[in-house]
Specification:
Blueprint: E1 2-4, H1 14-31, E2 37-46, E3 52-61, E4 64-73, E5 76-79, E6 85-89, E7 92-96, H2 99-116, H3 118-121, E8 124-125, E9 128-129, E10 137-143, E11 148-150, E12 159-161, H4 165-181, H5 194-205, E13 255-256, E14 263-264
Parallel strand pairs: 1-2, 4-10, 5-11, 10-12
Antiparallel strand pairs: 2-3, 3-4, 5-6, 6-7, 8-9, 13-14
Length: 271
């Protein structure tokens, strides 16, 4: 579902704005009818106490959040061994802030912001309260077409072209889902309900949280209401008892066989 549409920014570089518009279009086409995925475009989140950063796209799903930057990586960019970024503009090297480091601060502050309102955002399940400590916050950077990024101080694992955007999100979602259903890997898997997803989306946008308007509210417990915990314990051996009558085989009925180590048991119908 698209909860906040893309907004054109005429002040941005045409190449970055074109990439951002295409990313928003691909997200809309892929998830506009999917109630398990919520998409927000052009959201400002705090980077520190004094500054905010515009997040081009935010994808919220039942296993976490993905922050997407599609307006930064355009032109010719070089990253040196110290992690310092610079962009070549008309033959001149102009220093730029490291977007990866900036998003680390944004991710941390976003987690803290959600944690401050945890009672309103996360419903209790089986009498226990989830936390945002284990919630994955993934970050993707989209590289504009005909742009290049070079240097030894960059890890390009989370830098993709716009054509791979939705595939990357679906692949990440599938990986978390697979982890949930694994025998041991799913023990610490973070997962939230659809109602909680909408509550988180409203919190990020600065809207009032109104659970009565969210889908699937009946499937989860209301915030602050505890339910009886499910009894758990160690795995043990289950002893099954048969209701059939016990048939006793007498020693005189056992006939020796050709093998010295085996014996034949006569059919019970001869008793």
């Amino acid at each position: 579902m698209i909860l906040k549409d893309y907004i054109h920014r005429p002040d941005a570089d045409p190449r970055s704005e074109e990439t951002c518009a295409e990313a928003a279009t691909r997200l809309r086409n892929a998830f506009k009818n999917n109630e398990d995925v919520l998409v927000l475009n052009d959201i400002r989140l705090p980077m520190d106490e004094e500054r905010t950063l515009n997040i081009d796209h935010i994808v919220i799903h039942s296993y976490g959040i993905t922050l997407i930057n599609s307006r930064t990586i355009y032109g010719k960019i070089e990253v040196n061994y110290r992690g310092e970024w610079s962009r070549n503009v008309k033959g001149r090297e102009i220093a730029m802030q490291n977007p990866i480091e900036m998003f680390k601060y944004v991710s941390r502050n976003l987690r803290e912001m959600l944690t401050e309102q945890i009672d309103a955002l996360l419903t209790r399940a089986k009498g226990s309260q989830k936390t945002f400590e284990n919630m994955p916050i993934d970050v993707l950077f989209i590289q504009a077409i005909k742009s290049s990024i070079i240097g030894t101080g960059i890890n390009q694992s989370n830098i993709i072209f716009v054509e791979a955007l939705t595939q990357s999100i679906n692949r990440t979602f599938s990986a978390y889902k697979k982890r949930e259903f694994q025998m041991y890997g799913g023990l610490d898997t973070f997962k939230i309900s659809s109602s909680d997803m909408y509550a988180i989306a409203d919190c990020i946008q600065g809207n009032e949280i109104d659970r009565s308007s969210y889908p699937n509210m009946d499937e989860v417990a209301k915030p602050g209401v505890e339910t009886a915990p499910v009894a758990t314990g160690r795995r043990g051996i289950v002893r099954a008892h048969s209701t059939l009558p016990v048939k006793i085989i007498k020693a005189r009925d056992i006939q020796p066989s050709r093998s010295k180590t085996s014996a034949q048991v006569p059919d019970a119908s001869h008793d």
